Amino acid sequence: MPRKRVHIHVDGAVQGVGFRPFVYRVAHDLGLGGWVCNNSTGVDVEFEGEEDAVELGLRRLRSEHPPHADISGVSVAHCDPLGGEGFVIRSSDDTGGTTSVLPDLATCEDCRREVFDSQDRRYRYPFTNCTNCGPRFSIIQEIPYDRATTTMRGFDMCAACQAEYDDPLDRRFHAQPNACAACGPKLYWRDAVGAVLAERDAALRAAEEAIGEGDVVAVKGLGGFHLVVDATSETAVGNLRQRKKRGKKPFAVMCPSLDMVREVCEVSGVEAEALLGSGSPIVLLERRSDAPQGLLARAVAPDNPRIGVMLPYTPLHHLLLADLGRPVVVTSANRASEPICTDGAEAVQRLHRIADWFLDHDRPIARPVEDSVVQVVLGAPQVLRYARGYAPQVVANQVVAKQALANQPVTTVDSSEVVLAAGGHLKSAVALARDGEVILGPHVGDLDTVEALEAFEALFDDLAELQGVAPSVVAHDMHPDYQSTRVAQESGAETYAVQHHHAHVAAVIAEHDIDGEVLGVSWDGTGYGGDGTVWGGEFLRASRSDFERVAHLYPFRLPGGEAAAREPRRSALGVLSEAFDELPLDRVSSLRAAFDSIELDTLAAMLLRSLRCVETTSAGRLFDAVASLLGLCQHNDFEAEAAMMLQFEAESVAEGPVFDAPLEGESIDWRPTIRRMVDALDAGESPAALARGFHLTLARAVVDVARRHDLQRVVLGGGCFQNRLLLTETASRLQDAGFDVYWPQRIPAGDGGLAVGQAIVATSRNT
Amino acid sequence: LAHGGGGRLMQGLIDKVFKTAFEGIGLQSTHDSAVLDLDAGRLAMTTDSYVVKPLEFPGGDIGSLAIHGTVNDLAMAGARPRYLSVGFVLEEGLEMEKLWRIVCSMRDAADAAGVRIVTGDTKVVDRGKGDGIYLNTTGVGVVASGLRVDPSAVEAGDAIVVSGDVGRHGVAVMAHREGLAFEAPIESDSASLVAMVHALLDAGISVRCLRDLTRGGLATCLNEIAASAGRRIEIQEDAVPVDEVVRGACEMLGLDPLYVACEGRMVAFVAPEDAARAAEVMRGFAPGEKARVIGEVTGDDRALVVGRNAFGTRRVLDLLSGEQLPRIC
Ligand SMILES: [Fe+3]
Ligand SMILES: [Mg+2]
Ligand SMILES: [Zn+2]
Ligand SMILES: [Zn+2]
């Protein structure tokens, strides 16, 4: 058998996931010589040996790679055999570190087994991890990724851990956060003022006892502190709501096992996959009507047919939940609209009077990372909040990837420009375009508080630094008063303003690797239109670089401007004042009852005189208005509450009347819809059927606009398309009409995905 | 009113209205320029034009506003206002009676502020080319030697005192113009701050910086000072006095009272140990009755204004572009 030597280049997310030890094991098994080495875009391998063994090795590289390695291309070149050598793992540089930054990964099955095995040396050790799982993004401080550049730098490995770390055949070979009870981080149990009362397993037991008794315990996890209470206890959950000043906004729960999730909720195959995936997000699930009494307190998610559920994703959570044997509420430890706390002392100070106890640990958190949120719609997962387990990953290509022949590398057009995108004001997140790809950073939150602004600024610098690049262009929204716009303008780099709804569409174009023009349906609550009005119900003929507004919802006025986002009743008055010559308040009794007489006189006068009114085409506000007219919600206790109420109401029935909403010129005229709905309400028709009918009416109106344009591809984007019913109805009607339909799945539909679109538009601007 | 052209009719107007009204507080000379006697010290000078609809509103009118605005600007530099000039642009058809009321209101305001109107100018424009009256006032005043009242004097740790409840002027004018009725009538806060400022200086308070709140209200004013001082400012939002009726009106109108115009309010940046005493001194004057310490300058050298609410949440009080476009989705 002749000898053969090949050089293999593997592209993709293959660093820090145990790829090199995997290659080592393959070579070891097959008796191959050569080496494996990280490089800037992936991994280089050389195999030498008998021809059959080399071929087998190549096949195994492609078929057996580690679970979290994401191979985008493999190229093979033949070279001259060098003769008798062993196989070695070469260091990529002096430190042996890697340049890629990976998201945190949920505990793998092997590590979980060890933690519950009383014979294992990591029995009940809450910081167990390996190359297939554990912290990454939340502990990395600098590149290259190496133990010395993470928050694990203060922990010296014991001999046993070091031996694992050094052994290429071990699951923990070069696992940077590798640790055990003898050498690694440990737990501390602190009282409300921060005094340490217990350590290690005793701390965990104390936390379990306190939670069992109904106390509020702040638990330091992977990306920050959570507030944890017994989800079966009405008193405990009510107490948490009161202390956090949280009205009706649903809490997420963590369940000990998938079996228990199934007791409470309907779980489809795709939903189970999402729950169990390495991202381990919160998944929004439909509640079971026959769920056993007492497993979830009503206060967890009042009046909500769905519930956000996640499974344990660190050994600490696995131990806590297994010992408690019941679901717990797990919510970001912060005051309203602040980012999550990451530091023990800071938590004690900021959570004063909220948490009774603190389960702290001494592995520092490099940056706050919140839990991700996912829903399954039309049979596929849709990320609603992109954070832990997902960020920071490549979500799109800067230019269309041209798929070459099978087994050939995916080619990307080289782009030397590095673009940082600042995102929006709410649900802020930054994105970075470099080397032809766009990386989305984690959800930071709304930029109204100083804490959020500071976290945002840190992340703004951080994302580029972690990739070892410096942005030459900073993209931002056109809104002059977004904090993210300010930060972009103060960055010193060249700036590029991107229209809000174009960014929503461009994000989806890029996510689905679309070339050329699409009809972009960009619906949300608010976006700066650049023409002095507020957009939000837009139809754009759009490409990556340009857009033209071809249609929109019929405009209406919001009395009091931004106040309307908090009070759907204001949107309702604005909508009624367009649809009727005189406000028909005697026919919409629940709306009438939402105002006192001074309020009503003032708002009516404001509308009459266009005083303090903002003109808008916002779809989000139109949903608010209808929710208000139907008596479902007059004041938003949390963002999009009214729209959610309207969706749930609509989903409670199977049918609804489709109303008239003609396309007049560039406007979808919803006024006849509103007039018919007021008539129907007056005639005593059920709000549920009307709510459903409203969704169907808008879905059909989208098809009407699409038919008017010669574009085969229709892209749906913006926060309104997180509405499962609207998305399902719109997408399926468009498909039935013969269009190709795309919607956000990997990237949040709402403003959390804005930065990706900004990065795409900015990088495409000259082409 | 039909007195354009600068002829006899105009001379009659000047004699009949302005000289009569302003007699005794300065305007006597028919020379082209006023010649001013000034004591030793440095001279402060400021000018401002006034456009307001309606001309008369609860708590004031364009006349008193034009006096208060200019004397307050002088006072904010630590100056004692001494002389004013007044320029009138009158629209043909203006009722003489209204003009007389406004001119008398100017005289009273100047009197109260201890300032003399020494020169003036009048132009009449065609009907429809103006809003009744536009006014310009220019003032000079004297600053005591060695006194430095300036944003660059602001230091970390300085206390911030606001002289009274905020947001009244903006809401009062809007409500009156648009015919809106709230739980109770709202009056403008238009007032002279001259006496109060000099009482502060005379009391030996270490005053670093003074600023009257005008367009953009308290939040905008604090942003300007934060920017020129290069410092972070933190205020306790619930310490800022806001009249309950004004608060309710703002809520309806979708306004944040911290951003609504005032015409007789100021903030004083003073040494921390003088904060309580400064508020005490201010409370001795009508426009300072509700004076309160509301916040401080922090050690952070990034210009930012932060409002802390009762729950402890700290919101960023931005300098807004003025477009008032919603950010909330
Ligand atoms: Fe948006
Ligand atoms: Mg002025
Ligand atoms: Zn593992
Ligand atoms: Zn160890």
UniProtKB/TrEMBL annotation, chain A:
Q: Which reaction does it catalyse?
A: C-terminal L-cysteinyl-[HypE protein] + carbamoyl phosphate + ATP + H2O = C-terminal S-carboxamide-L-cysteinyl-[HypE protein] + AMP + phosphate + diphosphate + H(+); an acyl phosphate + H2O = a carboxylate + phosphate + H(+)
Q: Give GO BP annotations, semicolon-separated.
A: protein maturation
Task: Please list the residue ranges annotated as the YrdC-like domain.
Answer: 201-389
Catalytic residues in the record: R20, N38
A Pfam family of the record is Sua5_yciO_yrdC
> Family per UniProt?
Belongs to the carbamoyltransferase HypF family.
A GO molecular function assigned to this protein is: zinc ion binding
Q: What is this protein called?
A: Carbamoyltransferase
Which InterPro entries does its entry note? Acylphosphatase-like_dom (IPR001792), Acylphosphatase-like_dom_sf (IPR036046), Acylphosphatase_CS (IPR017968), ATPase_NBD (IPR043129), Carbamoyltrans_HypF-like (IPR051060), Carbamoyltransferase_HypF (IPR004421), DHBP_synth_RibB-like_a/b_dom (IPR017945), HypF_C (IPR041440)
Q: Does the keyword ATP-binding apply?
A: no
Q: Which organism is it from?
A: Persicimonas caeni
EC number annotated for this UniProt entry: 6.2.-.-
UniProt pathway: Protein modification; [NiFe] hydrogenase maturation
For this UniProt record, the keywords arranged alphabetically read as follows: Hydrolase, Ligase, Metal-binding, Transferase, Zinc, Zinc-finger
Q: Which residue ranges does the record assign to the Acylphosphatase-like domain?
A: 5-91
